Amino acid sequence: MAPRMDTLTVDGLAFDVRWSRRRRTIGISIPSEGAPLLAAPIGCRRRTLETAVQAKLPWVRRKLAERAARPELVAHRYETGERFPYLGREYELVVVDGDVGDGATAADGGQLMFVLPSDDSKGRERLGDDTERPTLRLKAGRFELARAAQTDGRAHFLAWYRRHAARVLNERVRRFAPLVGVAPPPVRIKDMRSRWGSCSARGRVSLHWGLVLLPLEVADYVVVHELVHLKELNHGQAFWRGVGAVLPDHRERRKRLKSEGPRSVI
């Protein structure tokens, strides 16, 4: 069951409130868009929330000002020459006539880049003989998009990223789970409004597909963060010791997530 949502206004500033049975402390975060988010344990008095928010108002207003000062992102038109991120690197897009190849894999920068599998309807185009051909792929250091798919370019990129996120992030979970000391959990790849990842009380981990736009070492921080939550459901000292035991530089990775994450959109 998803946490209940509510709103709270303090000194003219509206907050979205997320109530959670798992939380023991009050937390404030600034999503990339929308109202500030206040996470609180169920049963917490609203007066207590107001007091906590009052103490953090200067910080909240500063972060909102920083967010507003960021340059606006120019909408993609999915034309040749535009650049799109994947695992921390940017690749030029080339729009090509016809299909984009036979689906072979290609090595690029030491990483294997795969064409979408056939169950991803936005990444491939069905032909009259009931076969399929890829409409988007990453090959030889560039994205190739079939011209016929250009008008629906964003949907094709989203499908491509989501499919690759499932492959990459599940592999990272399998790699780090033994280091954390847990069994690899079920993983859901989602479009999460204000978080990069979450861990339910039932042991299900959810990860934002957008993590595959970031450098792998930054995405790994989120993976390890959520895996440690399987053992420690709060952000107490034991939790951070668990994260630090696997990633001694987790503080630096967390800073990079905060600075690079908001720019990684398509």
Question: In words, what does this structure look like?
Answer:
It is a single chain. This protein is of the alpha+beta class and 266 residues long. It folds into 3 domains: 5-69, no CATH class; 83-161, no CATH class; 168-263, Metalloproteases ("zincins"), catalytic domain (Zincin-like). 33% of the residues lie in helices and 25% in strands. The chain has helices at 46-69, 153-180, 216-229, 237-246, 250-260; strands at residues 5-10, 13-20, 27-29, 37-41, 83-86, 89-96, 106-108, 111-113, 124-126, 132-134, 136-139, 142-146, 187-190, 197-199, 205-208. The strands form 5 sheets. A 4-stranded mixed sheet has the order 1-2-4-3. A 4-stranded mixed sheet has the order 5-6-12-11, with helices on one face. Strands 13-15-14 form a 3-stranded mixed sheet, covered by helices on one side. A hairpin with a 7-residue loop joins strand 3 and strand 4. The two termini are 30 Å apart.
Order of helices and strands: EEEEHEEEEEEEEHEEEHHH
Q: How many H/I helical runs?
A: 5
The proportion of residues in beta strands is 15-25%
* N-end to C-end Cα span: 30 Å
- What is the highest CATH level, the class of the largest domain? Alpha Beta
The total number of structural domains is: 3
Helix content: 25-40%
Task: Please state the second-level CATH architecture of the largest domain.
Answer: 2-Layer Sandwich
Supply the helix-strand structural class: alpha+beta
Concise overview:
Helix content is 33%, strand content 25%. With 266 residues, the protein is an alpha+beta fold.
